[in-house]
Design a protein that fits this description.
Largest sheet: 8 strands, mixed
Number of strands: 14
CATH architecture of the largest domain: 3-Layer(aba) Sandwich
Distance between the termini: 13 Å
CATH class of the largest domain: Alpha Beta
Radius of gyration: 17 Å
Structural class: alpha/beta
CATH topology of the largest domain: Rossmann fold
Order of helices and strands: EHEHEEEHEEHEEHEEHEHEHEH
Strand content: 15-25%
Number of helices: 9
Strand order of the largest sheet: 5-4-3-2-1-12-13-14
CATH superfamily of the largest domain: HAD superfamily/HAD-like
Helix content: 25-40%
């Protein structure tokens, strides 16, 4: 019997950076809640972004933000994992070498910090992702507050990420692709799968009673956290290899189809 459903957002439920959820999903979440099934979103986005996305049903959900560094329920922090300040400073020195072609978002539990002066990028973060955003001159001044660093390149950063950034920093922090345009950096302990296990422990839900959905490298841990793990059709190969099942892509509303079957 499924008691816990956990899904990624970008590339799994919706197109990357989209804020358009089908109203049908809110109905499904209400149905699941009425049946005693806890619905969780586990995303690389910050809490404010995913909370706004699911506003009509946010009181029925648990939010796993920043790839697992921040867990929130009913506006209350259940878990916060900050990065080590020395790593924040050193990684920022590295990431700044990619300015102005790339941009960095530094996440805190209260919102995100941007050094960028690029109006189009700032607009995407504030009005596209709907992040709570503060413009600063130097992210490292706030190093003690940082949960996650993320570097963005429009059109794709996978080549830089896989050839240099991930091999360079993964021995020290958790480093992974989060979509084609983002590379994320977090404390080494941070993982969506670890976050789900914390929730399972709190709710007394087993691996066998958990259903998960994902598409990208930051969802591999998620695939390992529940027996009913689904890779959407557009998922990267590593996610498909770690999933027990497959479903249709976000274009074909694959997650919706499975969840509708679940409550019916």
């Amino acid at each position: 019997m499924i008691k816990l459903v956990v899904t990624d957002v970008d590339g799994t439920l919706v197109k990357e950076s989209s804020n358009a959820l089908e109203p049908e999903l809110f109905e499904i979440i209400n149905h699941l809640s009425n049946q005693g099934i806890q619905f969780v979103v586990a995303s690389g986005r910050q809490y404010a972004s995913i909370r706004n996305l699911f506003e009509p049903v946010q009181d029925k959900m648990i939010f796993v933000a920043e790839n697992g560094a921040h867990i929130v329920k009913n506006e209350t922090d259940l878990f916060v994992q900050k990065m080590k300040t020395d790593y924040v400073v050193d990684i920022m020195k590295d990431l700044r070498t990619y300015y102005p072609y790339c941009h960095v978002v530094a996440s805190t539990s209260k919102g995100c910090l941007l050094e960028s002066k690029d109006e189009q990028f700032i607009d995407m973060i504030k009005n596209g992702y709907k992040n709570e955003t503060t413009l600063v001159n130097d992210i490292t001044v706030y190093a003690e507050q940082i949960l996650k660093l993320a570097i963005y390149q429009k059109g794709g950063i996978r080549a830089i990420g896989e050839s240099y950034l991930i091999p360079r920093w993964d021995p020290f922090v958790k480093t992974c692709m989060a979509g084609e345009d983002w590379v994320d950096f977090m404390d080494a302990s941070v993982d969506k799968g670890n976050a789900v296990r914390k929730i399972q422990e709190q709710l007394e839900v087993s691996y066998e009673d958990t259903m998960t959905f994902g598409d990208n490298d930051n969802d591999i841990g998620l695939m390992k956290a529940g027996y009913y793990s689904y890779a959407v059709e557009n998922a990267v190969e590593a996610v498909k290899q770690n999933a027990n099942f497959k479903c249709a892509s976000y274009n074909e509303k694959g997650v919706y189809q499975i969840l509708k079957t679940l409550y019916e």
